[in-house]
Write a structure and sequence with these properties.
Keywords: Methyltransferase, Transferase, Ubiquinone. Helix 7 links the parallel strand 4 and strand 5. The chain has one domain: Vaccinia Virus protein VP39 (Rossmann fold), CATH 3.40.50.150. The protein has 12 helices and 7 strands. By secondary structure, it is of the alpha/beta class. The longest helix is centred in the first third of the chain and has 22 residues.
Amino acid sequence: MAEATERTGADRALKAGHRAMWARGDYPSVAAEIIPGLGRELVDAAGVGSGDRVPDVAAGTGNAATPAALAGADVVAADLAPELLETGRRPAEQRGARLRRQEADAEALPFDDGAFDTVLSCVGVMVAPHHEAAAGELLRVCRPGGTIGLLSRTPGGFAGRMPATVKPYAPPPPPGARPPSLWGDPEHVRALSGDRVTGETTGYRTVAVERFATPEEFRDYFKQRYGPVLGVYESLADDPGRVAALDTDLAGPARRHDRGTGEGRLVMDWEYPLYTAHRSPA
């Protein structure tokens, strides 16, 4: 019992840290300015339609929830950080999207078994530390024959390499936590799903990011806005040498992945795997 209580306490602390990490900085701007179209692509690929019951799990500001609602679905945006959900409220309303918002842990969703027709997560559930628990919840709340749709980061692509660049500077992850990049490996997702799904497909979506003039501008943008990166810099505040080294390294991926013409803007292709499957019959 004492061991179970200790694990529960550690899990609560871990989730509190995750909530604080995503609430700091300005993730809503990152989602709106870097990957605004990914949610729509996920909604289309999953075949969301009018009247479908849909949760956007680890929704953030609602990158998938808003287009799903605009498609006529009955949507709930669920996220561990209510601050992100609230920030997404006004942009959704301005677009005419009506949806519910609920604070929720992706590893323990507050929904009934089989409550939804289509279960979505757009670069969201991948950050849940315990992959088996999160995958189990996605499957549990999806009705038999329903659809699972996930967008993650390709481990070897730009969007996956940036976290890998920061990792050596970050505090070690807690015991049992698994890296988000694994969700970008189709074999890993298949292993998580097992025989609980049928008709699995994995495609890829590429976002051409052109908003930065220099690698340093890219670095500073994420250094100031993106919670996981901001948190690492805060942990290094008393070590200026490590801060300087991270400054150099974080600009590196943008420099290496630039395919621009040298006309004043970087052009980087960020790749995301898009996975869909159907929940196996009960």
